[in-house]
Amino acid sequence: MATNSTAAAAVRAYRNALRATKVAFRQDIPMLASARSQIRQGFQQHSDLTDTTQIEEEIQKLNDVSKFLIQNIVQGEKKEDGKYLLNFHERTELGDNETIKQSKNEMGSLSGAKAKKRSDLK
Questions:
Q1: Does the pTM of the predicted model rise above 0.85?
Q2: For residues 61 and 54, what is the distance between their CA atoms, to the nearest angstrom?
Q3: In this predicted structure, what is the pLDDT of residue 72?
Q4: Residue 61: CA atoms inside 13 Å, Cβ hemisphere, count?
Q5: In a domain, 120, yes or no
Q6: CA-angle at 108, arms to 105 and 111, nearest 5°
Q7: What is the 3-state secondary structure (H, E, C) of the chain?
Q8: What is the pLDDT of residues 83-122, one digit of tens each?
Q9: Residue 118 maps to a domain
């Protein structure tokens, strides 16, 4: 059974997720409504959990989704000239492009570096 503190943490995570959708999709009402519906649906889907560990895992997942929405989702708007205006906000995570300067070998196997040949594995 969920404790009061776990229930409070779940409600906080839910509210934070709704706030995150407002930040990420503030100018796109259909997307905002859809994202909120998905969050509501997921929250209701897990409302019958009783194992504290599972509840805490779901709370952490929801907090991670909130963080991702705020820091990584940027809405774009196509202008008449065909260019897109990206709507960054103060909480958008901006990289420093250091990885662009790295060679493919430095970045690791998922960057397109050559995979080992079967003959090399023997």
A1: no
A2: 11
A3: 86
A4: 10
A5: no
A6: 85
A7: CCCHHHHHHHHHHHHHHHHHHHHHCCCCHHHHHHHHHHHHHHHHHCCCCCCHHHHHHHHHHHHHHHHHHHHHCCCEEECCCCCEEECCCCCCCCCCCHHHHCCHHHHCHHHCCCCCCHHHHC
A8: 988 877 777 877 766 666 666 666 555 544 444 444 444 4
A9: no
Whether 97 is in a domain gets the answer no
Q: How far is CA 74 from CA 58, 68, 71, 82, 89, in A?
A: 25, 11, 8, 18, 8
Domain with 82 in it: 4-86
Q: Judging by beta carbons within 10 Å of its beta carbon (0-12, 13-18, 19+), is residue 10 exposed, middle or buried? A: buried
34-63 residue pLDDT tens: 999 999 999 999 989 999 999 999 999 999
